[in-house]
Amino acid sequence: MTNKATIQTESAPAAIGTYSQAIKVNNTVYLSGQIPLDPVTMEMVSEDFTEQAHQVFKNLAAVLNAADGELKDIVKLNIFLTDLSNFAQVNEVMAQYFSEPYPARAAIGVKQLPKDAQIEADAIAVI
């Protein structure tokens, strides 16, 4: 029997469309994309790429926490960047949130992201 639950927390930005912050099916959590919005103000945290990257991981962590998980539970991470020259900075920021074994990951260059964010990430976690 499949156990499906919607994950919602005020510690991460509210969904700005027809989606959930995450869906948990049994012990797998499918996290929607997080952009660097401050969950309180719903505004971009900064124009600085590194600060945006930190906020994305904080938002992912908050959603996972609401699902009784942690960033270390992520098995697949997709990162979307409007400028692939920020790839090295992504690795530096990720190193502050993850340790080995690292999740499988893709870094994808895109033309534009919601609210003109420079970075977005979604993930799949197993808790």
Automatic annotation (TrEMBL):
InterPro entries: RidA, RutC-like_sf, YjgF/YER057c/UK114. It holds the Pfam family Ribonuc_L-PSP. CDD domains: YjgF_YER057c_UK114_family. Belongs to the RutC family. It comes from the Bacteria. This is RidA family protein.
